[in-house]
Amino acid sequence: MITTSLIVSCLIFLLIAVRQWLPPSVRIWHIMVAGASVLLVLGEISPAEAWTAIDWNVIAYLFGVFAIGAALYDAGVSHLIGRRIAAMTSHGAALAVVTVATTICSAVLTNDASAIIGTPIVLMLARALRLPAGPLLIALCATVTVGSMFSPVGNPQNILIATRGGLANPVTTFLLWLTVPTALSLVVVYLWSRFLISRGNDGTNFDLHDLPEPSDNGSAWPAYLAVGLLVVLIVADSVMQGLGHTQRIPFGIASLVACAPVFLFSPNRLAVVKELDWATLAFFVAMFIVTGSLLQSGSLQAMLGERQADLGELPVIALGSFWASQIFSNVPVVEIYLHLVHDWEIPELMMLAGISTLAGNLFIISAASNVIVVQQAERFGKTPFTFWQFTSGVLPITLASVVITYAWIAFVSTLN
Length: 416
Fold this sequence. Notes:
Elements: H1 4-17, H2 28-41, H3 47-53, H4 56-74, H5 77-86, H6 91-128, H7 133-147, H8 156-164, H9 170-199, H10 220-242, H11 251-265, H12 269-275, H13 278-297, H14 299-304, H15 314-328, H16 330-340, H17 346-358, H18 368-379, H19 387-415
């Protein structure tokens, strides 16, 4: 059954895919917001239904970590890390440090915040070491995505699974099931990124003055306190669940509480508000509306028919979540999957988390963190790569990491 919601969703992906031929002023979030607006104007989804379709827990978490990320940048963290890495004489060692630092940041602050913090670091590295910026930014996108896979707060789709999947202890569950495939996949990212960097030379000459310099007024401690609070709240929630407590600390609430020191004590709070990635938040809000309209239209349910009963099988989850993420992005795909399947087991949830995350490494639109890297680079006046340059650069990483993750989860599931 073809509906207006399905047609609009496909058009959104098509426009993003051919965005390189659109006017430079047209951004990815513009296309998503325009699509959501069309659905609202056509009555495919009412304002009340759109409000309900938006997962405000995810939006709240992203707002908080975006604020923390902006505060960290404003405090000079990106410049400090970037300069220290750029001082390294070995390109391989510098890339290894970027990979490890980006992974830690993704696991704690989500892949989206890691993309915000990591983009200026990579641009500084490209300029200082005279490396091609395009391959380095592609390596950043891949690392941000893979590094977020083993954490329940590593990315928005993991947050959805952790909060709606009925997991008793999300932190422990994700670590036990996904640490090994994450580590193996990061090795693939590192090796392939070194190859891309050695092969490519885009002739880009980055000027460090293009990157806004952070303020130097002793404002770093609220940002560091915010990071500490976020880690403490997430770990505390995990410990409480491990001890059998039924009370939860919603990730969205934890994020808002954690970012409070930034707005209460930082002298640069107005700059943080200005630098906060509102475009990506708008992208997510619009994406939830588009997804809600699509679910409400019944197009997917009608197209699936009797096959909907097979959605909970491991091979179907892997194939379905991977390819559907290329059309609708991984966050709405997970949202749809959690609505269509009701009796979840841990292996199935981990397969959904792992493969939907790794699916973000195929197209720019497949993961919001990719969008953020592009938008951040464009804020600094740089166009890093085209849609298809990105895909050709990450395709080997995508294939290898998906195979590794599927094989590992399928193997571990046979032991339980």
